[in-house]
Design goal:
about 60% strand
Length: about 160
């Protein structure tokens, strides 16, 4: 495992440590599909995103190695009364991160997030919202700082928009 002082988990040296970056900047092929269906106060939003590509470091014996990632999301929101809503969201990602191996072969990892939220607009430009989130990192090797990583928590927020 890694120590608490590992630079990969510190905000200063690595500001992206809480995000997952597929790191496929070269030879990219990407597809995105985003359906949206609304019936009265019920909204369904979906997303399917697939990307394959390489990074300059993804070359072995003079050949480009392609890595693939897929992300999918389903969200449902129900708007009721005049200013209230409740919803749920599931987001899943699986793919082949650069430089992460399981027993000497390219690792295939997963990140799954599920959340339930509710909100209320007490005024036209103020949103009060609460959300419960569960996120799990799977299939990362035990040498990676995300090994058996998970997050369970809640957020209470207020947003002012103009």
């Amino acid at each position: 495992g890694t120590s608490p002082s590992d630079h990969k988990t510190q905000a200063g040296p690595n500001f992206t440590s809480g995000r997952f970056n597929p790191d496929v900047a070269n030879r990219v092929m990407a597809v995105t599909i985003n359906p949206f269906i609304k019936y009265k106060g019920l909204e369904f939003i979906g997303a399917y995103e697939m990307v394959s590509g390489s990074n300059y470091a993804d070359v072995k014996e003079g050949k480009w190695l392609k890595r693939e990632f897929t992300q999918y999301a389903l969200e449902a929101n129900y708007r009721f009364l005049k200013n209230e809503h409740i919803g749920g969201r599931y987001i899943g990602m699986n793919g082949e991160p650069r430089g992460i191996l399981n027993n000497g072969t390219q690792a295939k990892v997963k990140v799954n997030r599920f959340s339930i939220a509710g909100g209320w607009f007490p005024t036209k430009n103020l949103l009060l919202k609460g959300e419960v989130v569960n996120q799990v990192f799977s299939d990362f090797p035990n040498t990676d700082y995300r090994y058996e990583g998970k997050f369970n928590g809640f957020v209470i927020e207020a947003v002012v928009g103009f």
